[in-house]
Amino acid sequence: MKINLIAIGKTDEAYVEDGCQIYEKRIMHYLPYARYEIPSTKINYKYDKNRQLEAEASLLEKNLEPEAFVVLLDEHGKEFTSVGFAQFLQNRMNAGIKNLTFVIGGPYGFHQRIKQRANEIMSLSLLTFPHQLVRLIFVEQLYRALTILNHEPYNHS
């Protein structure tokens, strides 16, 4: 199984990018992984949330492979423990999913079209995180889940 992470907007914080790269190298010891960053829309939709969501949806639709199992990372999604997330991954592997794609939306979340395209919606926490930091939190949790599945000591629970 290959795992993709698609995110709207670029990472401009060096510590976030550095942290992501550390965990992404570790992840690739277990399975193929790639991160794609879709540039934010050039037009300022600050005062028109619906137009921004529409523009981001169009960009995402161009980058979502038709056969991908798509998981949106959204505050209103299902929550997992780290062990539960590991089991979620194992279940997707057991089901023969070849392309598992996680998506981080823009600051307003996802357009309804993208929510309808999704196979699953997942929340990383009830807490609110800075948009860029979600990338780092996600790749760390992905790495943790893979170590759990491989019975390695990274996760101490």
Detailed description of the structure:
Helix 1 runs parallel beside helix 5. This protein has a 5-stranded parallel sheet with strand order 2-1-4-3-5. Helices cover 43% and strands 22% of the residues. The chain has one domain: SPOUT methyltransferase, trefoil knot domain (Alpha/beta knot, 3-Layer(aba) Sandwich), CATH 3.40.1280. The protein is α/β, with parallel strands linked by helices and 157 residues long. It is built from 5 helices and 5 strands. The model has no long low-confidence stretch (mean pLDDT 92). The radius of gyration is 15 Å and the shape is globular.
- The parts where pLDDT drops under 50 for at least 5 residues are none
CATH architecture: 3-Layer(aba) Sandwich
- The CATH topology turns out to be Alpha/beta knot
- Ends distance: 26 Å
What is the top-level CATH class? Alpha Beta
Cα-atom Rg, whole angstroms?
A: 15 Å
Mean pLDDT, as a whole number?
A: 92
What is the domain total for the residues?
Answer: 1
Strand neighbour order, sheet with most strands = 2-1-4-3-5
Provide the structure class: alpha/beta
Beta content: 15-25%
Percent range of helical residues: 40-55%
CATH superfamily: SPOUT methyltransferase, trefoil knot domain
Main sheet record: 5 strands, parallel
Count of DSSP strands: 5
**Global geometry:** globular
Features:
single chain, 157 residues, alpha/beta, 5-stranded parallel beta sheet, 5 helices, Alpha/beta knot
Provide the fold topology.
Elements: E1 2-8, H1 14-27, E2 33-38, H2 49-63, E3 69-79, H3 82-94, E4 99-104, H4 112-117, E5 120-123, H5 131-149
Parallel strand pairs: 1-2, 1-4, 3-4, 3-5
Helix pairs in contact: 1-5, 3-5
